[in-house]
Specification:
Layout lengths: L2 E4 L15 H13 L5 E4 L4 H4 L1 E2 L6 E6 L2 E5 L34 H11 L1
Parallel strand pairs: 1-2
Antiparallel strand pairs: 3-4, 4-5
């Protein structure tokens, strides 16, 4: 199971709160790894090494990320490490999507229409 340690940063009406120190995220991730969590991540910060997914067998980078950018995809169509063939837990598309640093509008009415169509 992946575990995400996501940094808070002040925004909008919470400008009086301080951001999460990067060291706190790193410590949380280290503790998770030491206690057997295979896929702990830090998020909402620039930290390629700690935001990426590694093969638990050979240590190769499977999915390299920086903030919201996808940099490298090293899984085959079955979700296996291209270096050693070990399966990475999860459900993956054969090729990566076009995720990235972008904001998309969310219209709740669109979701109501989808829900109504599925009934």
């Amino acid at each position: 199971m992946p575990v995400h340690f996501t940094a808070f940063h002040p925004d909008y009406r919470m400008l009086d709160k301080s951001r999460t120190p990067h060291a706190t995220l790193c410590t949380a991730r280290r503790i998770a790894l030491e206690n057997g969590v295979r896929y702990p991540y830090v998020g909402n910060v620039h930290d390629r090494g700690r935001a990426s997914t590694y093969c638990h067998q050979c240590g190769a980078i499977l999915i390299e990320r920086d903030w919201h950018q996808l940099l490298r995809w090293a899984l085959d169509a079955e979700g296996r490490c291209r270096s050693c063939g070990t399966h990475c837990a999860g459900v993956f598309d054969a090729t990566p999507g076009n995720w990235g640093q972008k904001r998309l509008p969310v219209r709740l009415a669109d979701f109501d229409a989808v829900r109504a169509a599925s009934k």
